[in-house]
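Exercise 7b. Backbone tokens:
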């Protein structure tokens, strides 16, 4: 029997010719797009006859380019930071105050926008971590542990104290809600807390609160902090939930508290969050109910959010500005943050003497302006100025290659 010729596989020369033809085709497409794009940029009156002819001849390309422009404009609008003028802000805050007073079960959702006043960069704002990383820039360290609770954090704690707020769900890892004095049972830190490391070998999970950022050696799928559990010697892990990970720790994530709060909520106030991540957590939005039975949504954010259309009220203002107006409206005093009273100092477990050099991050001290850099002077202290790894440094970039474990 004769063997059938192998028709499926072209020869090497054929393949090369095919590839070349494809490359040429793509190149001429690109040339055409550039040409049409140039013509479209000109005002109609200034186009030559020849140029007008090009547009007529390549209507599909014209249409495609116009669609792209529309998409670009929409994207640009969504990224813009808008500010309500003073009068509008005041009248909107009045509405918000009425909603806060009338709410039976008010829940607050917070994002990075409430911490920007604490010099922590937000994620998606023009200078946010995410935006910077997308542009291929590195993040400069405005030392995170120097950050203190903002006015917004303090206001939220006061609203809880006054029983106006039942629960706070945060996507921030900066630990500032805890440090503002908000009780932990009223808080869900969905993406972790940079000051907490846990031993998951112990049952129940053992928690260690530290006075420094525990995440400097950790990243996506690598959570070991390098320190060990004093009870079982298991490796301690940070509590950070990176993009692409599923947080399973009971604390500090407290998903149970968050879900229960959302279930009970009649009003949800979103502060300083783009909601791009939070919107994906279905249980936070009661989307299984008809629209009229869902909690009323109030949003404070400078940029567009995907929930804007569902909101009763959208306030374009800085969180601190809105909150200070709100507190005035509600007649609630705003105390000043006092570092000496920061609950983190009573929650924290101190390091064993052999662990003192296990990190290079600055240590928070109860006395203002007297931070101690634990490893002392020397080469390690220098390292601390450039933030590497940790809760926002790694694991967020697109398509980053995994680095070999540092020795
Ligand atoms: Zn343990």
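Sequence design result:
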């Amino acid at each position: 029997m004769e063997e059938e010729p192998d028709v499926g596989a072209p020869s090497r020369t054929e393949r090369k010719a095919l590839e070349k033809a494809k490359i040429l085709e793509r190149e001429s497409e690109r040339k055409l797009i550039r040409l049409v794009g140039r013509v479209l940029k000109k005002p109609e009156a200034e186009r030559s006859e020849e140029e007008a002819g090009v547009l007529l001849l390549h209507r599909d390309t014209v249409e495609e380019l116009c669609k792209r422009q529309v998409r670009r404009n929409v994207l640009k609008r969504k990224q813009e930071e808008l500010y309500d003028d003073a009068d509008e802000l005041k009248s909107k805050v009045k509405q918000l105050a009425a909603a806060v007073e009338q709410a039976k079960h008010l829940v607050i959702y917070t994002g990075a926008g409430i911490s920007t006043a604490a010099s922590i960069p937000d994620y998606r704002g023009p200078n946010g971590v995410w935006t910077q990383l997308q542009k291929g820039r590195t993040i400069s360290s405005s030392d995170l542990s120097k950050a203190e609770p903002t006015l917004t954090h303090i206001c939220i704690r006061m609203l809880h104290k006054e029983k106006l707020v039942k629960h706070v769900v945060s996507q921030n890892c900066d630990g500032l809600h805890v440090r503002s004095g908000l009780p932990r049972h009223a808080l869900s830190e969905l993406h972790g807390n940079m000051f907490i490391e846990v031993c998951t070998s112990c049952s129940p999970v053992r928690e260690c609160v530290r006075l420094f950022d525990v995440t400097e050696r950790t990243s996506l799928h690598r959570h070991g902090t390098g320190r060990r559990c004093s009870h079982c010697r298991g490796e301690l892990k940070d509590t950070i939930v990176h993009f692409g990970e599923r947080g399973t720790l009971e604390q500090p994530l407290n998903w149970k508290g968050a879900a229960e709060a959302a279930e009970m909520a009649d009003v949800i106030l979103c502060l300083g969050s783009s909601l791009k991540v939070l919107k994906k957590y279905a249980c936070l939005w009661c989307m299984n109910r008809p629209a009229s039975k869902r909690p009323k949504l109030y949003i404070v954010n400078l940029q567009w959010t995907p929930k804007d259309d569902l909101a009763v009220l959208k306030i374009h203002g800085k969180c601190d500005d809105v909150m200070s107006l709100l507190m005035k409206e509600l007649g609630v005093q705003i105390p000043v943050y006092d570092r000496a009273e920061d609950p983190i100092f009573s929650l924290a477990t101190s390091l064993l003497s052999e662990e003192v050099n296990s990190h290079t991050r600055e240590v928070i001290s109860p006395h203002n302006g007297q931070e101690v850099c634990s490893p002392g002077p020397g080469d390690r202290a220098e390292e601390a100025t450039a933030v590497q790894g940790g809760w926002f440094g790694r694991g967020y970039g697109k398509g980053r290659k995994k680095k070999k474990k540092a020795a």
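Instructor comment: The first helix runs from residue 12 to 41. Residues 370-388, 393-407 have pLDDT under 50 and may be disordered.
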